[in-house]
């Protein structure tokens, strides 16, 4: 092993091979559920260095855990406890290689932080639409590795749909330069989409060419109370018809999630929390003007009120007010954390099945564990719910998790199978869900995945035990 | 072989195994460049039958050529001349399994004709946006197998981006049911996008769940003469800024392509052909009204005239007039065919590089083969040109092709490499470009493709010799 360490030092330089001191930023996952031990944390500065690091590890038979901002939710980017895995941190590779305005593309390295890219795009007059809670520290490489979703998928798609080309170091340490800025390229299998979302198990994404969009003239939000989840789904359809691609966000929040938020963040001034079972937040990105955006929202809300889909509504009077409304939605996970540990689910269901799914599953969970409090919120526009279960009032969170997590997961996962859903919508599999996947994924699909893993990483050194059981 | 034939007859029924009579509809490619000979044409009526057919062929070691409407441009869906390949025609599998209005999805079988799906969607109040010249006979299975592009990619993406889930029969005859209607599902490798665009070389796509969109309130076109390709690219950027997702089409046509069209179809009444080097066609899909669509177009054209990007422009006064303008653009390939054989290229280039690419390549070709006439047209909005070379006036088309095709292909392909382009934008590889690919594609990418092919079709029975050399 010491030979490997010296070899790695010779490739990336001694200061960039970390073996001592507090490495918990690299070894512990974001949710602080596991703390591994790395053989070394290696921080290459170029694609060529990444390739050499992979070759060195492959020759030594040492496995590699690629890591970006280490903000993942599924324990996929930290080493195991063996002390035998190399963490390959991409954060030093953070160059913006090229902005091509006429082609509406930007080429960046894997270590660029999402928020930096949003800002760089904005300064050049464009929008990079990916937006998610960890944007201040997650990296583009991590976004690609996990096919990150977020709040704008309804309009712009997941990270996969935002990417036109990749640069990848294969499991053999070869460099594939597929940094195409092409919107049409039918010259063979879609390697790009195969690496995207493979969570570092097939190779290392080192750079990408991503889509940019014109900045909308105005982004406004509306906040509305709806009488039921059925009404929320109908309102979504109405807003899609009337606003078309202007509808760039459609979030849903149940009463309890807003109550919690109000309780822990009383300064947020939530428009209405009282007696409404659900609220929704709509975002309209208008290519004309703020006035036009508001006029279109007025029109949608008028129709919705007439049809009984909305009980009460607030349309933001300004961009600042829009941000405040978003802030309410974004504060739910924080309020929830303040309230104590809870059982989290990142799930998706065909939008048409969501009302039935939620009604049935709420009832099943309430019957199984009386007194639990459901924190239901998420991206209704793309069918993704964060369907979380908070311990009964006064119950100890940790004990609750220990006692109930498996049982409640099983209820939720079985319900997902019944309603055509997925046990991981936007967070991925990692090691957290790797043992659940065989129960809930088609055996044929799993077999195909194993064949691909075997074909592209026959040595099994790329992030082993993640996505697929080792 | 006769044992296999009887086996196939027992699976799909004797009338659906064709071995005699004129099978040229299945054996000859759309462009009539090659005419193969099938062992049999098998027409299964269900996914289960497809699976059994694949198993039977695999057991007999007989290779399979999946086929939809057989309208492909790259000789990918007809058998070779050996008489030893089974054509698997999916056209009998043409059921619409489900429309899910609230989820904005439709699930259809592979044999549904594109135009039928467009109509079915429209009758349900939705838009299925894929649109291309062969839409009256091409099938959804073929669209998926080749990742078809067309005229609306600028806004809606290629077929890959329109698909949420697949049902596939693997090369081993297993059925993978991945017919998800989910917009977020991060539970493993992207098998869907791997099969899409694999041209039947990894398995058989039998059904798909596809995205639907709300019907726009109005679709209008504008037709404009521009002073240069540079101006066309600038106008594209302007239109994207002003119309955002409303801009659903942006086509370009050079002077000669319009002259040819005018000559062979004088009734089309082309707005201006005379002295303008390039014309463009813009489509605006408006979610408010026809009046609003026109108002937005007026605004764009006013800005463009002010900035000197446009010399003259016509904005359609009605939907009928919009269709007429589209008809001009769509008649170019027909006019070209009337004029005689020509050397076709379906290429893509980053939009920013198109002006230089065209100027340089036009000059190189003119120098190499004096008198040739360039028919340049295509989907400028997504960087895809149909960059075709017509024989000099009076020259015999067939002799010209024989003499010049290879040499001109080489000029074009080398130029594409220089400018970051692709030798196949939307048509695929098939057998037409399979021997060119190794010269113009990254060897690392090709090696990865071979490893995937070997992993998923180790027997090599799925459409051998297409995409990858056999």
TrEMBL record, chains A, B:
Per its UniProt record, the required cofactor names are: FAD
Q: Does the keyword Nuclease apply?
A: no
Coiled-coil residues: none
Extract the GO molecular function terms from the UniProt entry.
catalytic activity; FAD binding
Superkingdom of the source? Bacteria
Which BP terms in the Gene Ontology apply to this protein? respiratory electron transport chain
Keywords of this entry: FAD, Flavoprotein
The keyword rRNA-binding appears for this protein: no
Residues forming the FAD-binding PCMH-type domain are 34-215
Stored PROSITE patterns: FAD_PCMH
Q: Name one Pfam family in it.
A: FAD_binding_4
Family the UniProt entry places it in: Belongs to the FAD-binding oxidoreductase/transferase type 4 family.
Question: Which PANTHER family does its entry note?
Answer: BLL6224 PROTEIN, D-2-HYDROXYGLUTARATE DEHYDROGENASE, MITOCHONDRIAL
Provide the protein name.
Hydroxyacid dehydrogenase
What is the scientific name of the source organism? Answer: Comamonas serinivorans
């Amino acid at each position: 092993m010491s030979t490997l360490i010296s070899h790695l030092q010779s490739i990336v330089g001694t200061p960039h091979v970390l073996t001592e001191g507090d490495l918990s930023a690299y070894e512990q996952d974001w949710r602080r559920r596991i703390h591994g031990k790395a053989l070394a944390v290696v921080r290459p500065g170029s694609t060529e260095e990444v390739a050499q690091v992979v070759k060195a590890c492959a020759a030594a038979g040492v496995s590699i855990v690629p890591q970006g901002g280490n903000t993942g939710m599924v324990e996929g980017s930290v080493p195991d406890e063996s002390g035998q895995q190399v963490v390959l941190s991409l954060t030093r590779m953070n160059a913006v290689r090229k902005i091509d305005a006429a082609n509406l593309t930007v080429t960046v390295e894997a270590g660029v932080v999402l928020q930096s890219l949003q800002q760089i795009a904005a300064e050049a007059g464009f929008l990079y639409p990916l937006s998610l809670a960890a944007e201040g520290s997650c990296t583009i490489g991590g976004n690609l590795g996990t096919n990150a979703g977020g709040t704008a998928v309804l309009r712009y798609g997941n990270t996969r749909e935002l990417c036109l080309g990749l640069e990848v170091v294969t499991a053999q340490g070869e460099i594939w330069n597929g940094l195409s800025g092409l919107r049409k390229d039918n010259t063979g299998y879609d390697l790009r989409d195969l690496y995207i979302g493979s969570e570092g198990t097939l190779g290392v994404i080192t750079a990408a060419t991503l889509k940019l969009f014109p900045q909308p003239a105005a982004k406004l939000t509306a906040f509305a109370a709806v009488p039921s989840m059925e009404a929320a789904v109908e309102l979504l359809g109405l807003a899609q018809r009337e606003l078309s691609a202007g509808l760039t966000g459609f979030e849903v929040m149940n009463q309890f999630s807003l109550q919690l938020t109000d309780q822990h963040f009383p300064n947020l001034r939530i428009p209405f929390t009282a007696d409404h079972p659900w609220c929704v937040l709509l975002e309209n990105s208008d290519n004309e003007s703020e006035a036009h955006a508001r006029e279109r929202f007025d029109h949608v809300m008028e129709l919705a009120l007439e049809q009984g889909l909305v009980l009460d509504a607030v349309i933001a009077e300004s961009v600042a007010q829009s941000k405040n409304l978003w802030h309410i939605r974004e504060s739910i996970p924080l309020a929830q954390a303040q309230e104590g540990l809870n059982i989290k689910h990142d799930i998706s269901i065909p939008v048409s099945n969501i009302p039935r799914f939620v009604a049935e599953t709420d009832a099943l969970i309430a019957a199984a564990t009386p007194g639990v409090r459901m924190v239901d919120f998420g991206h209704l526009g793309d069918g993704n719910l964060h369907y979380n279960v908070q311990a009964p009032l006064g119950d100890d969170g940790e004990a609750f998790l220990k006692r109930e997590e498996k049982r409640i997961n099983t209820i939720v996962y079985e319900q997902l199978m019944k309603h055509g859903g997925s046990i991981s919508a936007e967070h991925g599999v990692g090691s957290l869900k790797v043992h659940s996947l065989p129960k809930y994924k088609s055996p044929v699909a799993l077999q195909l995945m194993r064949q691909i893993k075997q074909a592209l990483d026959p040595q099994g050194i790329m992030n082993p035990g993640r996505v697929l059981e080792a």
